[in-house]
Amino acid sequence: MLPKDDTASTLKDLEILPMTFDDLEDVLSIERLSYPSPWSRSQFEKELQNRFSNKLVAKVAHDNREVIAAFIIFWVVADEAHILNIAVRPDFRRKGIAKSLLFFTLNNLEERGVKEAFLEVRRSNSAAQSLYNYFSFKKVGVRRGYYGDNNEDAIVMALEIKRARKIDFDDEEGYDGKDFV
After folding, report:
1. How far apart are CA 42 and CA 47, in angstroms?
2. pLDDT (tens digit per residue) in 89-119
3. What percent of the chain has pLDDT above 70?
4. Which domain holds residue 111?
């Protein structure tokens, strides 16, 4: 069962939308500020054209305009997902945006029938590991020397995605309709 998204009340202006080519400059900026070996423009362009790739941006109101605060890229093949990249603009970190974006993504995966999600995270990235632990991702392996910039290991994490219970809309006794308004 996925945890409750308890950040929604603090992020009233948060919008999660599909990433487009128009978002690329902001996404590249976040990427460069977030990683020692950032993805290239062509890698993002290829993801934008890849039918297996899902790309989302989190937009927030900031200084009287809408800005991209974070993004996530993941693949879905059959009943598995692989989270490839997630990053938050430095000035929006520790505000619950990554948690909301991941919560939205995991709910989307659950609705699509995905049974398991995987990701790699740098051994040194304790903030990201804390986020994944919050969602009950479990360490399932290590990829030695995975990151080419410094040969740092990647921790492979996985999450089994399952519904707490299926709702039978014809069962008047088990469903009152109030949570889907």
Report:
1. 9
2. 999 999 999 999 999 999 999 999 999 999 9
3. 83
4. 8-163
**1 in any annotated domain:** no
Residue 31 domain-assigned (yes or no): yes
What CATH number has the domain bearing residue 26? Answer: 3.40.630.30
Q: Which residues pair with 157 in a beta bridge?
A: 119, 139
Element (H, E) at 70: strand 65-77
Output the pTM of the full model: 0.82
- Is 83 inside a domain boundary? yes
66 is catalytic: no
DSSP 90: G
Active site residue 80: no
Give the number of other CB atoms < 10 A from CB of residue 120: 17
Catalytic residue from among 80, 110, 116, 120: 120
64 has a pLDDT exceeding 60? yes
